[in-house]
Amino acid sequence: MTDQSPATAEAVGKISAAFETIERARGALYTFHQLTGTADFALEEGIDALRRAGHHDLAADLERELLGRNVLPGRWTFQVVEDYDDTYYEVFREYVARARELTGGERHSWEARLKRQRRTPAEPGHELTPEHLPD
Fold this sequence. Notes:
- By secondary structure, the chain is mostly helical.
- It has one domain (6-113).
- The chain is built from 4 helices and no strands.
- Residues 105-135 are annotated as: Disordered.
């Protein structure tokens, strides 16, 4: 059932906006994953440099205790990302899709409504869609 009421468009818009924030959080989680991996490889280079400089005990301790260490109990960062995706992100995404069904599947129903209200028809730079650009 499609509901084009302003109240429904606003509600779906708020849910979509929340999901946009989740997308940003997921991106930050991937950044965390990549930065942690990059740091682990840089640590390995530092350990090798310590060995070359004759600091074998410290190099051995770092290699044993820190190189390749879990960031959470039993988890490397890729597992954190996968658990987040499976446990939270995918569920949220499915509910956003369900909510969007209320507005005919439109992804930014609230923003689309605002654009229709706020633009100046026939004014250059206020075209409704790219298809409405003058030739």
